[in-house]
Amino acid sequence: MSTQLGTLEELPLAYRQAMEAASVGPLWPQMRNALPHGAPKPVTRTHLWAYQDIRPLVIQAGELTPVEKAERRVLFLIDPGRGLSAMQATSTIYAGLQLLNPGETAPAHKHTPSAARIVVEGEGAYTVVDGEKLPMLAGDLILTPTGCWHDHGHSGTAPVIWLDALDLPLFMYLEGSYAVEAKLQAPRNRPDPSEVEYATAGLAPPRRRDAKPPSSFPQMRYPWARTEAALRRMAPHYEGQAVELDYINPETGEHCMHVLGFTAMMLRPGEVLRPVLRSSSALFHVVSGSGTSLVNGVRHDWTSKDSFSAPVFAEIEHRNEGSEPAFLIRVHDQPLQEKLGYYEERAR
Ligand code: GTQ
């Protein structure tokens, strides 16, 4: 059905003015904007954020703005489809590069949005989440889920930069975003659960009947070394298929957070991957390696530490023409869309 719907201009001026005065409007001129036929019309435009271009600006932020004056010293990624004021990389994903210099701390706070960090460069930084001290090594995924206290510190000798991913756009849309501040936390004197209870996939401690249920977020650090090793082990057994691992909650098997999901992938040398069209939007972060991706026909030549975005239902082709495998983490909003009951994949 593609009936031509009536326009605003066809309506008498006096009627339009009367509607405006009464704070009402006609649906039919807006119908196709509100409910496009067959598939959404994304606002998001794919973009590549090259680390070598942004890194000097992040380092400069450290010279221009003391951390005390920033609270979180971050340059956020801007979706060209939305313009400069939008604090978002896609419809649901806020992302930013955060700098912490040696000796600096970022004070504790907790907030309604959830955050996750992927460490991009440097050693010696840590995040304390609800008293759990989480070391930050390159490629690690560190969660700071909704309502969890978190502060950052750095006992190394060179700047540390990480990529923050938050579900902030949704919380701003919901008029639900706020934070509570506090002093730095005293971390517990033990390694985090990724090094203790959940160091081996498939094993979790037994729970006594009278014990309180495990936290909703029992594991908040996913060391990259183990993720990469797992992808490499899988690769020979997945010939002709994508080599991917989802970051999951080890107690429930569900996505590791409520709104945003995280999927690690390995692109073998010479591999060309054309994934299904997904209703989720995505931000790809390159942990290591280089390659080329076509996103809706736009070509991105990417290398280690770069990030690039894909709108909902994007046609994507990844290519690794090098001789080394490439490793990426896809940040996406599949968990949210599943909760809303409309996550969809379409064959190409
Ligand atoms: O590190 O807590 O990029 O609260 C934006 C908001 C980082 C953080 C961001 C935040 C944080």
In short:
The chain is α+β, with helices and mostly antiparallel strands and 348 residues long.
SSE inventory with pairings:
Elements: H1 13-21, H2 31-34, E1 48-49, H3 51-64, E2 74-76, E3 94-100, E4 105-111, E5 115-121, E6 125-129, E7 132-135, E8 141-144, E9 150-154, E10 160-166, H4 168-173, E11 179-182, E12 221-222, H5 224-234, E13 243-246, E14 261-267, E15 272-273, E16 277-278, E17 282-288, E18 290-295, E19 298-303, E20 307-310, E21 316-319, E22 326-332, H6 334-339, E23 345-346
Antiparallel strand pairs: 1-20, 2-3, 3-10, 4-9, 4-11, 5-8, 5-10, 6-7, 6-9, 8-12, 13-14, 14-22, 15-21, 16-23, 17-20, 17-22, 18-19, 18-21
The structure holds 2,5-dihydroxybenzoic acid.
Describe this structure in words.
It is built from six helices and 23 strands. It is α+β, with helices and mostly antiparallel strands and 348 residues long. The chain has a single domain (26-195, 220-346), classed as Jelly Rolls (Sandwich). The strands form five sheets. Strands 1-20-17-22-14-13 form a six-stranded antiparallel sheet. Strands 2-3-10-5-8-12 form a six-stranded antiparallel sheet. Strand 6 (125-129) and strand 7 (132-135) form a beta hairpin. The radius of gyration is 22 Å and the shape is globular. The protein starts with 12 loop residues before the first helix and ends with a strand. The model has no long low-confidence stretch (mean pLDDT 96). The site of 2,5-dihydroxybenzoic acid has 9 residues, from strand 3 and strand 10.
